[in-house]
Amino acid sequence: MEFSDLIRTGRAQAKLLRGPEAPPLRGTLCLTGHHLLLSPGPQATSELWLLLLRSVDSIEKRVASDSGTITLRCKDLRVLQLEIEGVEASLDIARSIEALSSLESVITSFPFFYRPKGLRLGDAWHFHPPERYYKRVARETNAWRLSEVNEDFSVCPSYPRAVIVPRSVDDGALARSARFRQGGRFPVLSYHHAPSGTVLVRSSQPLTGPQKRRCAEDEELLRAVLAGARPGARGFIVDTRSSQAAKQARMTGGGTEAKTAYPGWKRLHRPLERGQPLQESFVRLVEACGDPQQSTDSWLRRLEGCCWLAHVKEALSTACLAAQGMEREGACILVHGAEGTDSTLLVTSLAQLILDPLSRTMAGFQELVEREWIQAGHPFQLRCAHSAFSHARPKHEAPTFLLFLDCVWQLGRQFPLSLEFGEGLLLALFEHAYASPFGTFLCNSEKERCLCEVRTRTHSLWSGLNQPKEQRKLRNPLYAPNPLAIWPSVELQSLRLWQGLFLRWIRPPEPSEVAWEKVWQIVTDKEKTKLSQPTVSASEPQL
Amino acid sequence: MEHIRTPKVENVRLVDRISSKKAALGTLYLTATHVIFVENAPDTRKETWILHSQISTIEKQATAATGCPLLIRCKNFQLLQLIIPQERDCHDVYISLIRLARPVKYEELYCFSFNPKLDKEEREQGWMLIDLSEEYKRMGLPNNFWQLSDVNRDYRVCDSYPTELYVPKSATAHIIVGSSKFRSRRRFPALSYYYRDNHASICRSSQPLSGFSARCLEDEQMLQAIRKANPGSDFIYVVDTRPKLNAMANRAAGKGYENEDNYSNIKFQFIGIENIHVMRNSLQKMLEVCELKSPSMSDFLWGLENSGWLRHIKAIMDAGIFIAKAVSEEGVSVLVHCSDGWDRTAQVCSVASLLLDPHYRTLKGFMVLIEKDWISFGHKFNHRYGNLDGDPKEISPVIDQFIECVWQLMEQFPCAFEFNERFLIHIQHHIYSCQFGNFLCNSQKERQELKIQERTYSLWAHLWKNRADYMNPLFRDDHSQTRGTLRLPTTPCNFLYKFWSGMYNRFEKGLQPRQSVTDYLMAVKEETQQLEEEREALEERLEKIQKVQLNHTKVKAKQSEPSKHSGFSTSDNSTANTPQDYSGNMKSFPSRSPSQGDEDSALILTQDNLKSSDPDLSANSDQESGVEDLSCRSPSGGECAPSEDSGKDRDSDEAVFLTA
């Protein structure tokens, strides 16, 4: 298929409106296979304006007598309006955008064509393999090993090639445990908490089914987890579904661990919202944010009605519970829901952020996202196919990753000095997860990424972000390493709407930009003064 | 003190509201001025001090097996839940506090016994810090259009106005007196703010006594004079800040609002801000939401909406924005009134002034603004904040709302204010504390009769002395955005109004951000300054050395000294490091007793202390939190909080405490 088949009209004269605060742009509109461009007239001073078509979430067209208006709602929640000369041209362009923005093929997507200056293909893809994290674990304990049982993705299609498992369990047992877990996601190490010697483990639900099946190897695996921590250690299974839902899952072949089969483990149910209801919550929140005419009261009513903050609270408190279990109770924690690719990862990654000072650094957080979301098999392509504006019926879309970013933002608000990265990085991750010129968030699993040769044919987002010119936008100037756990408050008064994301294109951005400029100035002033301290001779004569 | 039935009760438990499992055992003391709770725990001996004047309500709850619960709610939003073992003791404490919390004479108030050990001269200087006649001069007055009037000398015309007032030059004494007779409580139109860039002004008054048809020639001339004082415009706005229905109802009582037909060249406008009774109930409802035990997110947001509090805040802001726009953009003068012109009028005039004039967004300017629009123009502090026992229907959080408006603006414009949130919180605290004389009584006249300035101290001097604690490190007076009039977004943005947890939950430390950006940045700034000073000193020395020993200077890289100040960044971690109860009601970790958990946290605390530069820090702030939220500390990290009154007056308190 050629992109040109889908482009009915390549260019037209147009005016672009970018919200109430920004001035409109006029010029020639061009449509390419991956982009919408607006090049201002030759005498204009402004630069070329560019939009990745993939980031268009929904499109709306209206025509007048000799022109048309296209409203583009983007996945990063921006709303753009194009006024195009000529009815025919505007309809053609609208149809072309619609077709090009919803292409499903991965290998024809823009990351496979994107060749930015200054970056080399293949760079940074080696940044965060599981092997690297295993090295750290191996320094802290020898109860675990790196297994390549999934080398060809045959045991678990959504796991990476290498996973960290108890040393005492052999690959054969792992494979059998995998057959007892949905999607083959047998329990693997997520995080080792060195101070307490406990571990965070994740998996999918066991396939107990209505007959309450058991699996000796699976039981052995979890026994080995406890034994690896310390003799007599206890464990908690944090099931992210209600006990009702977990019981019901038995009817469809799933279920949850039976008490008697797993001595030492105790089950806790902390239901977290997922899937379609979560997507709807996101859609309703964005809708409420986009309606400036409402009164203060109806705004609060809609904020309440969409339940987004309630989901933030639940996610954070479940993560805190898991972290508390490890740090305070000295217990091992296994987290799973049903598939183990959504709320499970939400809980394990947040718990690490709370406990692990390293994961709060710039590099550590990127590693966490890579390890606990991308390589752990969160199906980004399915979950982030559409954002909050799409009219299409949601199928697999769910803003789980956005919920994670929101929780991280809440942590950063409560501990403004403890994260090395700032809101800028979280916003960038949100944008790139939904539409990106980089390959990092492509596909649903490592297996798919290997098939598409993502690592060799696209650039990694991390190498893009870690360029020096990007740093100021992404870093937190207030960062001061904090070696302790950061326990957030999950009380309602302590949680806030993430205005920087949900109102990013609605509220005027300047006041906060001016404030950050000042923060940077204060911090760099200090650095400069420190550096400019004069050097004094050691053999200083007595005066 | 004859009202104290029992000065001391032992084995009292102070319940932690967030995690009700935790309770501190200690001793409760009643003194002439404070309720004090001292914890038994030998290593901390944490003290909680509550001024009697801060007590809003005392509630004795049904006796339980553990003892008799006593709930003390404070005007600064502190909530104290005590459990007293003996019913009889509880009753005695209850009866004593009921009396102590409701003084009947001004002389019983704390400011008359409070002695910060300043001599007479210092006290007088303190009172002179804020000078309103200077302020009018700063506005550019008197000038060709406005003059100082002595018509209210000795409070002859209006007893709730100050004696010195600015009025239009063309308004003769005859006009003023005539107009005053046509206005509620004789509060005639007088200048609140003059915008020298375009001669437009904000004037204030009370409602006219127009009834259904009454007119007053002098009042009409008065408004005409205000219009004439602004040559740039041929009309003035008259803003009635009440809902139209309320204003109409007043007509039946012979009061009401201006009839556009009778006054030439006015544009009349209603801006519906609700009355003090609605506001009192609204705050009450919001505080009930804050007190809910483990509510759901939906309960909380629904309750917040239902209280209407943020809607009321927005109404006040909208009125202020309307006036600021009329003055700065249209160049039109505005006359503002409500009923008596001392509540909503004060709110709206001061919000508008704050938006218009960057001076009011500085530390000193903000004190001036409160002095001008609130204190001098007879806002009834005593009635509104219940300093003396009085009619509960008069109580209403009028100035609290203004203070919150300022905070909402600070959130939207982080660089526009010289002061920080703590400054607002401490002012709110002292409006109720009666520790300083500034906010006593209902009018300037009463304060003069009481000889407040000779017998009490000024809060402004106290705040000014400790101004380092109140600075906003992000303040940028150089930026185009923060100079001149603050420009609010053109589209209405309701989501910009947020629940102010820093005020209404400020005693629940666990709910607040655990690290303070303000303190951190102030510390960085201070460190930078010190480094600079060090550098200058070193450079000077270097120069001398070079002179002495030109040839022998072997320059060797010297590592910058290990910073003495670097401890500040982790110093707040002691609070950061205790997890709250995340398990809800579920007994998730049943095998461990709570005391074991506490052991853990104690262990962590000591570890933390080793790292922190100031091990007493958490204890310090907690100790003082009883009297005031004193998280403010010297950012350099060494010394303990220099700031709060309670710290300094501890001696005098101690004395009372011993004799009690």
Automatic annotation (TrEMBL), chain A:
PANTHER family reported in the protein's UniProt record: MYOTUBULARIN PHOSPHATASE DOMAIN-CONTAINING PROTEIN, MYOTUBULARIN-RELATED
Name this protein carries in UniProt: Myotubularin phosphatase domain-containing protein
Domain (Myotubularin phosphatase): residue spans on this chain: 124-502
SUPFAM superfamilies: (Phosphotyrosine protein) phosphatases II, PH domain-like
GO cellular component: cytoplasm
Gene Ontology biological process: negative regulation of autophagy; phosphatidylinositol dephosphorylation
Source organism (scientific name): Panthera leo (Lion)
InterPro entries in the record: Myotubularin, Myotubularin-like_Pase_dom, PH-GRAM_MTMR6-9, PH-like_dom_sf, Prot-tyrosine_phosphatase-like
Family: Belongs to the protein-tyrosine phosphatase family. Non-receptor class myotubularin subfamily.
GO molecular function (one): protein phosphatase binding
Automatic annotation (TrEMBL), chain B:
Sequence positions that bind substrate: N275, I276, C338, S339, D340, G341, W342, D343, R344
GO function terms (MF aspect): phosphatidylinositol-3,5-bisphosphate phosphatase activity; phosphatidylinositol-3-phosphate phosphatase activity
SMART domains assigned: PTPc_motif
InterPro entries noted in UniProt: MTMR7_PH-GRAM, MTMR7_PTP, Myotubularin, Myotubularin-like_Pase_dom, PH-GRAM_MTMR6-9, PH-like_dom_sf, Prot-tyrosine_phosphatase-like, Tyr_Pase_AS
Domain named Myotubularin phosphatase: residues: 126-504
Active-site positions on this chain: C338
Membrane topology note: Peripheral membrane protein
Xref: PROSITE patterns: PPASE_MYOTUBULARIN, TYR_PHOSPHATASE_1, TYR_PHOSPHATASE_2
Any one Gene Ontology BP term: phosphatidylinositol dephosphorylation
Keyword presence, Zinc: no
Regions annotated as coiled coil: 521-551
Segments of skewed composition (Polar residues): 566-596
Main location: cytoplasm
Location in or out of the cell: Cytoplasm; Endomembrane system
Limits of the Tyrosine specific protein phosphatases domain: 307-351
UniProt keyword Cytoplasm present: yes
Alphabetical keyword list: Coiled coil, Cytoplasm, Hydrolase, Lipid metabolism
Membrane-traversing stretches: none
Region described as Disordered: 552-660
GO CC, alphabetical: cytosol; endomembrane system; membrane
Protein family according to the UniProt entry: Belongs to the protein-tyrosine phosphatase family. Non-receptor class myotubularin subfamily.
Name the UniProt record assigns to this protein: Myotubularin related protein 7
Lineage of the organism: Eukaryota, Metazoa, Chordata, Craniata, Vertebrata
Gene: MTMR7
